[in-house]
Amino acid sequence: MDYLDYLDASPGQRRNFKKNDFETDWTKLAEGKFGQVYQVKMKLWRETCALKVFDTTVGNDNLYSLRPPLLHLNLKPSNILLDDHLHVKISDFGLIHWEEGIKKKLFMEHLTARGNINYIPPEIFSQYCDPPGLSFDVYSFGIVIWEILTQRKPYTGCSMTTVLLNVSHGRRPCVALINEQRPRECDQMISIMKQCWDQEQNKRPPFSETVRKTEALSEVLKIPGPIDCHNSSANQYSLESRSPFFPTYEISSPQLPNLPADEQCSKDSVLSLLLKKDFGSFRSSVKREHISTQFNGKKSLLHYTVASGDAKSVEHVLTLGAEVNCVMAKGYTPLIVAVLNRLHNIMVLLLEHGANPTQGDEDHWTAIHFAAQNGDDRAVRLLLDNGALADPREKLGWMPLHLACQNGHETVVRLLLTRLSIKVIGEGEEVQKRTPLHLAAVYGHTDITKLLLSQGADLNATDGSLSTPLHLSAEAGHNRIVRQLVKSGAVVDGADKRGHTPLHLAALNGHKGICRQLLSNGANPDARTHQGWTAMHLAAIKRHKTTMEELKSLGASVNAPGESNWTPLHLACHQSEAEMVAKLLAAQANPNVIEDSERWTPLHVACASLSFPSVLHLISHHADVNAASAEKATPLHLAAQHGNIPIVKALLLNGADRTLQDSSGSTPVDVAKRQGKCEIVQLLEK
Asked: Packing angle between helix 612-620 and helix 578-586, nearest 10 degrees?
């Protein structure tokens, strides 16, 4: 074998290894169906490592360079490895692969044989023989996210058949199992997870987009203060961290009472007839003694019969004396089951037999809650006409109107508004105090926003974070809703709990069009958060170059002082964002402005951040190379401390004085000696 597995040569680099790159003493650690794992020692690095060698029958010798890209098809937690630094390594590529002409049944056997049933997307269960695409692994990743967030295994206790039926019908692991006491950023991860496991392949995001979103979530916005020449510790000035979107508390529908798995049906011939959809035989076989039988999860025969969708069978079971308002373990009634399955004729039948439309489950979700969330206006109308309340609240305070507004179901919203007062329309749910208008705004439902405003909804109502609908829509990037709210008289400079105005949030997220709208309608371009940051600061820290330019063109100050007098240029230098530094300087940012605490200029910050391109940009715009900090340290002192030869040379070539002393009497060469930077010492002593 010429090529074995590949390992990381260094962070960001990979290479192929030949057999003679390792010493001859190989110790087999494990062996499986697809290959072997050996303990080996590398000749060059003298390091012991584990090496996995694939069986050559798994794939040809260009396994890692296939075009189009190689699909994993086996993505699950056990194949996601972490090193000591929590760097992720994906293992077991190529163990499952699709070959032209392979039978769907055989491919499924390969998948399920490795315990992958929980991670297989629904399209694979169909009868079509299309090869798996890139969205296959994206779906699997969505399930992995759920496992990480819940620390549970999906579909625990369910048979393979049950999982197959659930996934095929669009059901997923229960989102409600994710801990409610979670970081704000977790809500956006939940949104990403739901996109990844979407029922439709073309709606699942590419991994490149997912990476972009998750990196934005993991980035902590912190600005360290100056580093003293004689002390490597740094003071931290915290810039407020905020996720790209406001968190939204989403409520998931309960899992439906599925028809029983094959093994359960074999124990009960009546249920097996339902599964086979042999409804005629079912009706002739059901006896009165079956009616009171309680199945798994406290489900009754009526629950199963309703889920089957056959109205005649439901009526027959009811005539045999079934309790129409019986409840399952979680409190779901047959009426709720019918609503979840959009079985309108069965809803009518149940209501005629006395089904209570106001009865809720254990979380106080009533049938109209589920109908509103699903956008089933026919069911909503039917329930309202049969005594259902238009404004029941589940245990967290959500009304059907909240759910319809969140999910963009305009027809349902219109129906509910005919039964609700203006006071109720403006009420918030209990968790985050968000009104229906907040939800319509944050989710981008323009027509519903207009409808609520026309009915008198308070466009300046604040939620638990003092955010208005304008805050939410500006942060989420919904231009049309921002335009509608501003046109209707929304306060453009209102501040939330952190002092963020809608302009701050639009700038933080790079929505330059919304910035333009807000500034054109009177927003203060230099308003500050509680920590003193302007919209220009936030655009700089998030690297939104075009947004920064838009803010500048509309009157925002490029030299606005923030906390400790840090300007946007200080931030860009700290972030080593050379292109942003150049953009700010081109917009007349002052390269010699001094921050308050340690009296550092942007050039000090760039030297401490080891950003050579930023240093060059600053020098070309006449930055003072001999500016002294509060401790009389010059940029050259900092460059010498960190041992950056290119920066030291650039400073010297542009007039840096190597003889200047800091407050301790040390010259740059003294600092370099103290830090053991021999090359810098030689350079400075020439």
From this structure: 10
Angstrom distance (rounded) from CA 671 to CA 417: 72
Q: How far apart are CA 585 and CA 552, in angstroms?
A: 12
- For 90, the enclosing helix (H) or strand (E) is strand 88-90
Measured CA to CA, the distance from residue 101 to residue 110 in angstroms comes to 15
What is the rounded distance in angstroms from the CA atom of residue 330 to the CA atom of residue 292? 18
Predicted confidence band of residue 211 (pLDDT cuts 50, 70, 90):
confident
The model carries a pTM of 0.62
Last residue of a domain, one of 16, 40, 62: 62
Q: Strand, helix or coil at 9? A: strand
- CATH number of domain containing 130: 1.10.510.10
Q: Is residue 446 part of a domain?
A: no
Question: DSSP per residue over 15-41, as a string?
Answer: EE--GGGB-S--EEEEE-SSEEEEEEE
Q: Which helix (H) or strand (E) holds 578?
A: helix 578-586
Within 10 angstroms of residue 588's Cβ, the number of other Cβ atoms is 11
**What is the C-alpha separation between 113 and 115, in angstroms, rounded?**
6
Q: Are residues 88 and 56 in the same domain?
A: no
* pLDDT of 261 higher than 80: no
- Which string of b and e fits 48-61 if b means at least 16 CB within 10 Å? eeebbbbeeeebee
pLDDT value for 93: 62
pLDDT tens per residue, range 119-178: 888 887 765 556 777 888 899 899 999 998 888 888 877 777 778 878 888 888 888 888
Domain contains 137? yes
The residue segments making up the domain with residue 133 are 66-217
Distances (CA, A) of 610 to 585, 596, 639, 641: 19, 22, 8, 11
Map residue 99 onto helix, strand or coil.
Answer: coil
- Give CA–CA dist 169/68, Å, rounded: 30
Say how many domains are in the chain. Answer: 2
